[in-house]
Amino acid sequence: MIRAVAQALLSHWRRHPGQFATLVLGLALATALWSAVQAINAEARASYAQAAALLTPQDQPVLVPRQGDVVARGSYLALRRDGWPVSAVLDGDTRFGGVSVTVMGVDMLSSPVMPDDLGDSAPDLGPVDLLTAPGIAIVSPDTAARMQSDPDGPRLILSEQVPPGIVLTDIAVAEALLDRRGEISRLFLLPDRQGRRDWAQVAPDLQLAPSRAVSDTDTARLTDSFHLNLTAFGLLSFAVGLFIVQGTVGLAQEQRRPMLRTLRALGVPLRLLMLCLVVELAALALLAGVLGLGLGYGIAAALLPDVAATLRGLYGADAPGSLTLRAPWVLAGLGMTLAGTALASLQSLWRLAQLPLLASASPQGWARAAARSARWQALGGLALVLAGMLGTVLFDGLLAGFALLAGLLMGAALILPPVLGQVLRIGARRARTPLAQWVWADLRAQLPGLSLALMALLLALAANIGVGTMVSSFRLTFTGWLDQRLASDLYITTDSDAQTQALRDWLTPRVDGMVPIRRVETRLDGAPGRIYGVIDDPIYREHWPLLAAAPMGWDQIFDQRGVLVNEQLARRAGLGLGDPVELGAGWSLPVVGIYSDYGNPEGQAIVALDALLARHPDLPDRQLGVRVPDGTLPALMDDLRDDFGLERDAMVDQATLKAVSLRVFEKTFVVTGALNVLTLGVAGFALLTAFLTLWTMRLPQLAPVWAMGLTRAHLARLELLRSVALAALAFVLALPLGLGLAWVLLTVINVQAFGWRLPMYLFPLDWLRLGGLALLAAALAAVIPARRLSRLPPAHLLRIFADDR
Amino acid sequence: MVLTVENLVKRYPGSDRPVLRGLSLSVGAGETVALTGESGSGKSTALHLIAGLDHLDGGEITLGGTPLSGLSDAARADLRRNRVALIFQQFNLIPSLTVDQNLSFHARLAGRDDPQWRAEIAGRLGLADLGARYPEALSGGQAQRVAIGRALALRPPLLLADEPTGNLDETTAGAVLDLMLDLVRDTGAALLLVTHSDKVAARLDRHLHLSGGVVA
Fold it and tell me: Does some domain include residue A113?
């Protein structure tokens, strides 16, 4: 019996391959976008975890200084002399081979973190190579691909076990690369043997560090919000895809209702029938899931290099540029597809379970049932919007923002069909000619069948408007901020403090002004940060963009009575004007100003240079910002090159710096833009599938009008008009929703994700372009059914009037 | 008796008057019985109750010695699968299966498909050359012949037919009825046929007229 039932059920798909393709493709598209985002996140997180594991292996005891950042050499030697098997580590960030990296210097013969695949890429490598100049630097293939070769530098050895962005090398090489001779950051306490005395007695200035280094959790914390943003986008795409699935499953079940009724009449038990339908849906979901995973893998592989660039540019976090297929990702993707299909099919399966054996079957019944539930749907939508608003009261931060977004979007989607119904009702009332009345009435009749696709379109359009407004507002603010902030015409980096002084003397008669750029890397509010020291120069008072400032703020800075903090630090630490900031042991100053600092994930503070030098007398003096008279920059750069031998990369002019910053900015939103376009594509596909699947239901509507004298070509044109009109209505409703979305993104999500708040600007030309695109998509979606209608043989329309159809 | 109906009562929700008010009838093995009546007299309702498609409000229906009133949904499905075959006015073929697949479908559900017997039925119903076609490509007369073939392929003890020729023109209806009665008699099945046509009713062994919810 099961075989016969299965044959009957499956025969429907064989006879309706288009519907089958729609269902599988809809589900595959939903899975693809979701799993692409998940693949990207998983890859990046695995990379952070790998970096963390390398920097501090789990269960590896690590000794760190109780105070300061450097292990006293005496303590290290005392432990060695006492018999403790300690292995020294020196790590820090620097530029190596033209890229920013974290250098980890270890004792290559004793360290527990050495990779075991070195022989694969360098079979000739011997112990001597490890220890003699120029030494070796072990990097991941990803990092190596970005590096410029240096014939005098250490030999690059590739290892898959070293995460991107990390250079593993001998501690002596690390000392040279980091310019930190004789320093030790921490000690690995190896498990081989014990010393004669307790290590705490031998080196009382050291303590056991937590099993994970603090710096690694910073990466995870900083990037979490970025990954959450991606996940939210993936979920939105998944939801849009599920609208397609729900629509297709609902229609397929409705079309099969006569068959299911016949099966029941012929003696197939309801339980068996439901079981067969569930198994069929699960099989379809698995098939679509596999397709979607393949598609998602392709999308992720295409987007990952841009995501890696974004993470590097925005957060300084390194993620690989290539993708690895991971079993948990495959299983999670398939699980999500199954769960999504179950969710999207629940309603139609429930309806079938309740189906009276003698109920007459008609696809129109499905539409009527949907229309009946419109009021409840509108109420449900309002409840969701209110629940989203309530979420902002109940939750904090990012969660509140996403609760509000989810409530707004899903609520508005549910409210759309009843609102459109009302608009169409008003239109019908105002129509004068019989044809216009029929068109309005026909639009209303079709609304239930098209509502899911229109909801998907609304979500996609709102997401586009919202994200587009956010990105464009960001771009406008960012470029204005760059113009203001990059006030120097030329930025110079020297090799030594002495060269800087010589340059300063040489430049003084030739330029309008110059400021030193001197900073110290430290921890601010428990996370990595930087303190800059500035001199009293008009460039700061005139150009530094401040969001909030105490009266005479700059004077207080230069009098060493105050500190400026960036917006990120102020928000993270909850700092306001007048609040004290701890800048180091026993050094704290009140906040006298807060400045915007887009594109930087870390906390930053600005104090008077003298104040900084008093605490850090050895602060390097190797960077200068120079203002030059108009038109003299190229000649000055040539002279600097000739007289001081400064290389091209030691001098960066303002225009180049701006171009680089803007390029990083644009890269940051490549992924968002791509997901935006893909979501709109999925919504367009939803509209197309809705038109195609509703095609058979249209004929009884069209045949009488055709019989009364309208040509098929005329009817086809009206089909196009109908599609475009509905899309236009959806767009009009998407506009306020999208702007609401932009507001939430700019004022809630961005603040949490990046640490800065941006002003919101409106871009009507972008809306017009998007509106045009939506109308074009709707027209394209209606082209196939309209073309089919214009060429439909009259016999097909005549069948509508025949009893034996 | 293949079928016994005693004091059958059926009331629809929202209606004060029951549509069936104590209907009683019986059909013996191999007997053909016509049930006629005005529109709304309850003849189709009676047929649906006998087929176990709907629940009765009073009385009893006994099919081959099995009373229906106490049966679960699954047991009634089993009964329809194995012991009763239905022929509908709207044919109710499965649109996505071919004529051949539709013909064998009910018998396969019951697990007693007999290809030889099916081929014979197809031949006698004039469907032998239409086996690969889908229902949408059939005329009304052809579709109803497939529906009759599907019912008879099961070799059921009782055949229930609801206006089987109601959707066909007079000539086609006559031809289809001839074929159906010939085959029913050859298989020895009992037939209870609902019709509003006295002409059709006259062709059967017995004629019952339903009026006011009871056999007049």
Answer: yes
Q: For chain A, what is the mean pLDDT?
A: 80
Q: What is the pLDDT of residue A214?
A: 38
Residue of A nearest to B51 (CA): A265
Q: Indicate if the pLDDT at residue A213 is higher than 60.
A: no
When pLDDT is averaged across residues A341-347 and rounded to a whole number, the result is 82
For residue A388 the two structure tokens come to 């989203």
Q: A67 and A40, same structural domain? A: no
A348 located within any domain: yes
The tokens of A325 are what? 């297929």
Model confidence over A571-626: pLDDT tens digits?
Answer: 888 889 999 998 887 888 999 999 888 766 678 899 999 999 998 888 888 888 89
Distance from the Cα of B112 to chain A's closest Cα (Å) equals 10
Contact B94 A3 (CB under 8 A): no
- Name the residue facing B167 among A7, A258, A804 (closest C-beta): A804
* Nearest-CA distance B35 → chain A (Å): 20
Residue A145 has pLDDT above 50, yes or no: yes
- Comparison of pLDDT for B158 and A543, the residue scoring more: B158
User: pTM of the predicted model, to two decimals?
Assistant: 0.64
Specify which of A178-192, A594-608, B52-66 reaches the highest per-range mean pLDDT: B52-66
- Write out the residue range of the structural domain in which residue A589 sits: 490-627
pLDDT digits (tens, 9 = 90+) for A747-797: 887 777 667 777 888 889 988 988 888 888 888 888 888 888 888 776 676
Residues 6+ away with beta carbon under 8 Å from A331 = none
- A51 within some domain: yes
**What is the Cα–Cα distance from B80 to A269, expressed in whole angstroms?**
10
Q: Confirm or reject contact between B53 and chain A (CB < 8 A).
A: yes
Contacts of A269 in chain B (CB under 8 A): 73-74, 77-78
A36, A68: one domain? no
Beta carbons of B109 and A11 less than 8 Å apart: no
Domain B3-215 CATH (choose: 3.30.70.920, 1.25.40.10, 3.20.20.370, 3.40.50.300): 3.40.50.300
Domain co-membership, A68 together with A49: no
Which residue stretches of A56-82 are H helix? 73-81
Say yes or no for a CB contact (<8 Å) between A264 and B77. yes
CB within 8 Å of chain B, chain A residues 15-44: 15-16
Output phi, psi for A257, to 5 deg: -60, -45
Contact A804 B140 (CB under 8 A): yes
Kindly tell me the sign of the dihedral angle through the C-alpha atoms of A628, A629, A633, A635.
negative
Average pLDDT of A286-310?
84
- Inter-chain contact B140–A3, Cβ cutoff 8 Å? no
Q: Are residues A599 and A529 in the same domain?
A: yes
CB A697 within 8 A of CB A794: no
Minimum CA–CA partner of A257 in chain B: B94
What is each CA distance from A447 to A52, A454, A604, B103, in whole angstroms? 54, 9, 55, 39
Residue closest to A684 by CA, chosen among A9, A29, A224, A24: A29
B142, closest residue in chain A (CA to CA): A804
Where residue A489 falls among pLDDT bands split at 50, 70, 90?
confident
DSSP state of A708: T
Mean pLDDT, residues A379-399 taken together: 83
Distance from B55 to chain A by nearest Cα, in Å? 11
SS3 A802: coil
The distance of A264 to chain B (nearest Cα, Å) reads 7
User: What residues have CB less than 8 Å from A163, skipping those under 6 apart?
Assistant: A47, A48, A50, A51, A54, A140, A318, A320
Asked, for residue A728, whether it belongs to a domain, the answer is: no
pLDDT bin (cut points 50, 70, 90) of residue A201 is confident
Last residue of a domain, one of A627, A648, A667: A627
Which of B55, B72, B92, B154 is the mutation pick for testing A, counting most A CBs within 10 A? B92
- Averaged pLDDT for residues A160-165: 76
Residue-level pLDDT at B115:
93
Q: Of the candidates A612, A627, A642, which is a domain's last residue?
A: A627
- Give the gap in angstroms from C-alpha B186 to the nearest C-alpha of chain A: 22
